[in-house]
Amino acid sequence: MKNLGAGQFLAMDIRRFSDYNGTKKGGTTMVYELYLEAVRTKVTRFEHASRLINGKELACAVGMAFQQAGLPMPEPEAGTEAENFQNESLKALEGKSGVAEKLMDAIRGYSRRDEKVDEDMLAVLKLAYDAGL
Known about the structure:
Blueprint (H helix, E strand, L loop, with lengths): L5 H12 L13 H14 L10 H15 L12 H12 L7 H9 L9 H13 L2
Helix pairs in contact: 2-3, 2-6, 3-4, 3-5, 3-6
InterPro entries: DUF3837_sf
Protein name: DUF3837 domain-containing protein
Organism: Candidatus Enterocloster excrementigallinarum
């Protein structure tokens, strides 16, 4: 069996699982679940929440937070600025009980300003909302 580098393995997984739209069961495995595990690790295993590094992690954290708060899943439109999505999400979550403080810290700390909501972010948002923390 040929050894694959991490980049080749990830590229193979993306091609195989990138068609998740919320209706195909097999599509959620691997790639999107990696974001779920990354955010869980960042907000549970360290004294302070680790920084979210991209819009997919932001969408994941927001989905988890809305589920914890008992709010309906947010429905941002593709093309929305990630910063606007972040700010609107924080407004909706403000004062809600049940949301892990480190999760809120991670959402507040997201600082990339060059991303827009895309189909992958929407899929990760749904996966995280359905999974919770």
